[in-house]
Structure formats: C-alpha cells, structure tokens
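Field notebook, page 229. I keep forgetting to write these up properly, so this time I am using the form the group agreed on. The chain and the ligand, LNDFFVEH, are recorded exactly as supplied. Prediction of the bound pose follows.
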Amino acid sequence: MNSQSAAGTEAADGTRAQRVLIVTAVAAEREAVLRGLRGSSRFDVIAAGAGPAAAAAGTAAALAAGSYGCVVSAGIGGGFPGRAPVGSLVVASEMLEAALGAETPEGFRSAAELGFGSVSVPAPGGTVQALAAALAAAGLTVSTGPVLTVSTATGTAGTAAALAARHPEAAAEAMEGHGVAVAAHALGIAALELRAISNAVGPRDRAAWKINEALDALTAAAAILLEVL
Ligand SMILES: O=C(O)c1cccc(C(=O)CC[C@H]2O[C@@H](n3cnc4c(=O)[nH]cnc43)[C@H](O)[C@@H]2O)c1
C-alpha cells in the first residue's frame, strides 16, 4: 500500500517510489542538475529546448514514454529586483503565462482578461513550502512566488515595470515553466518550477549575467530535490 502526496509516493516500508522528470531548456542546465542528483536513477533529466512550446512538447513526449509522479521545470532565470537576487533560487508558487494576450490602444490585455481561461498552473503548496524550507536549511537563498513564462526575455526598464505592475507578486521570469506545467497538468501530474537567478529582470546586459553562479546554485538545489521529492 502506498500513501500518495504531492511530495512523493511513500511505500509501506518508508521508501519513496516516485519517479521525477526534470525538464531544462539547454544542455548546460541539464548537466548542472545532473551533477546535483549524483546518479540517482529515480530522476530523468531532459533538455527540451528554449521556450514554452518546446518545453511543452518535450515534456509531453517524455511523460508519454515513462511513468512519473512529478515534473519539475528547472533552469536559470531572471529575478525581479527586490524579490530574487542574482545567485538565489526561486521555487514557483504558480507557473504563469505572462506573454499571451493582445495589444490594444489602451495597452496589453492578458489572455485571462480576453476570456481565454486560466493562464496559470498552481504548484502543490505543501511541496513548494517543503522545498523552499529545505533549500533555506541548506544555506541557500530562496524565495517563493509566481514565476512568469515569457517568450521574449525582458530587456528594458519599461517592460520590467509593466510586468511588475501586472504581476506584483512575481519573483522571476523564464521561458518554459508554464509549458511544462500545462503538459503535466493534462495528465494529472504535479508540476513544480525551480529557477536559479542569473540576471535581474530589467535593461538587457547579457555580459553581466552570472550564468556560472546560477548553474552552481542549480546544482546545489538539485541535491535538495533528491531529499524532498
Ligand atoms: O550561455 C551559456 O553558457 C548558457 C548556459 C546556461 C543557460 C543559458 C541560457 O541562455 C538559458 C536560456 C534560458 O534561460 C532562461 N532565462 C534566463 N534569464 C532569463 C530572463 O531574464 N528572462 C527570461 N528567461 C530567462 C530562459 O528560461 C531561457 O530558456 C546559457
């Protein structure tokens, strides 16, 4: 007899049986995650490509080929100033599609405002809190909050301000989380998003991105995923 929770499937002997799929965008992120997982056979890690479409398609294909209890969108991301500093980690409370909508003379109208239905997939709250607590206990800087999925990385102060005004609780932005979550949700599988912050959301300064620092944080966080999921 197994007891099921968002954080895992615990067998009668106390062992966890849940298989976990981790979806990154690029190979460097996949390798960073694999370093942290230290060869655990319970986790599969794929690099599905950048953007929500590639992420959703890659996730759906992997879920069709295997049996998983949980899916994690993981990688580097941009942090909203004052919420998620460079080098820190963000565990998403929800994976929110922020780019889908329409321009109007009065400004951007979101897909939700246009009546397209929900553009947000909530993460399982207990697991989010457990993961954030475990990351903090390991000495890592972590915050929780919505992570926005965008198709164009923010590159101006104006876009950053507009996004922050529309989503004042947002902690980070990246390009895949909502796609991964929609694919998982369609199969009734819990989805999480974990971002290591490489840059601030704001005026583009690619040379200033701390990619290696963020990949190191991602490796450290993956080691904690082993304990929590
Ligand atoms: O150039 C490299 O060495 C390198 C190593 C690892 C990752 C990359 C990427 O460019 C990853 C692309 C991926 O990163 C996310 N991301 C990061 N910052 C932002 C942002 O400010 N806004 C949106 N997305 C961001 C995103 O998920 C991309 O798919 C390069």
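OBSERVATIONS:
- Helices lie at 27-37, 52-65, 125-137, 157-166, 177-186, 211-228.
- The chain has one domain: 3-228.
FOLLOW-UP: compare against the apo run.
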